Sequence to fold (479 residues):
Amino acid sequence: MSKKILAMLLCLCMVVCMIPLSAGAEEVEAPKVYVALGDSIPAGYGVDEGKAYPELLAETCGYTLQNLSESGAVSADLTETIQENLTAIASADIITITVGGNDLMDDLYEYVANAYNAANSPEVPFTKEIIQQKLAEGDSTVFMAVLPYLAAYTKSENVKAVIENFSNKLVGAIAAIKAVNADVAIVVTTQYNPYTYLAKALENNPLYADYATLLATGFEAGVTALNTVIRTLPALTQACTVADVYSVFAAAEENPCNAGFTSETTYTLDFHPNAYGQSLYAQVLDETINPLPFTDVDKDQWYYNAVRYAYFNDLMTGTGNNQFQPTTVLDRATVVQILYNLEGQPEVEELTDKFNDVGTQWYAKAITWAVENGVVAGNGDGTFGPNTAISREGLAQMLYNYALYKKYNVENEGDLSSFTDADKVSEWAETALTWANANELINGNGDGTITPTAGAQRAHAASILMKFCENVVAAQAAE
Fold:
């Protein structure tokens, strides 16, 4: 797929004349066409630094992007946008839809204005435009005045009407897309609560905890109602997939939104995602559109992202039956094959005859290439030992040799003396393991050890390869 080719090119950007895994140029897939539909979130509103998620996703996956999203769009605008861009819709391979927030917010501001005016009879009545503007500006007087009505809104009859209209418009938009492009993959993102992180951050603050909690709780009900509709779409339309942005934002390690509250007079309720939030959108969509095929690699495992990287960059595949076997120790032949993949599988004219245990097996081309280029050597007795388990220091040595072959800068100021088992490092591997540790490829185990002779597991190898591309190859490209 195009994503793999692009990512390989990025990882090996110093390599000229690199050969793709499928050698013939006529076999290379054209980039997938990606169309983004929706509101200000995919349009990139409020991202002072960084990019909106459609651009991030397109870059990650190698898609050709046409972003048709517009700030202020509601679900009722989708069908019109589709009709005005039929050519783009018809040619798309992937379409993402992010919409619904404005449906709720527009009605919310109107409800709050009406409720406040009815209860207080101000000389200058509030309008939804005034409330929206004042809250965006951080007007504490308006915020305190309307906060009770924000919470009450989700229990009103207004919400039911908004949700019903939202459901009808979204289903209609999906039908309109499928009418002109039956094969396109449609992914609809769930809505997030922009104030969840804010409430968590202030939960122990005696001055602001109640405000933040009331705000987050009020929005939670409305967001839940929208997401209930969105999550029923796959069964209802049989034409789309749902990307769970809500859960990822709720569990975010830092604030994914622009909303911030430092005092009663210094705050912003801007619900749009910041650059970090946009990156979370792109990540969730990537994982939804391009799921890992492995049943033994869970998202909550430390090696999940590394396995995704290795798999989608054609560095490592599974072991069969939808298994990756993350804790299985690698053998020498597999590591050599991985480096051969990393190099783009260059042609090998004649298989090596230096070893009596290689022959014409699946790893023969990789071993031939590696031996010819000084990346690996045999055992000195006419064997290569393709099925021999490889240690952590052995993996470091192979990567070090590969870096030398690529003429990368391998100078470092590393020091292994802080590890309690540094004396266990083999003399032949000391330079390579020091280099690997200095470049954060192979770190300690959290208990003061680096276990140099322990077997290199597949999950560790995926992580090491990802860091090698990010820390070594990228650094070389930047020089």
In short: The radius of gyration is 27 Å. Strands lie at 33-38, 64-67, 94-98, 185-189, 241-243, 260-263, 266-268. Residues 14 and 477 are 6 Å apart (CA to CA).
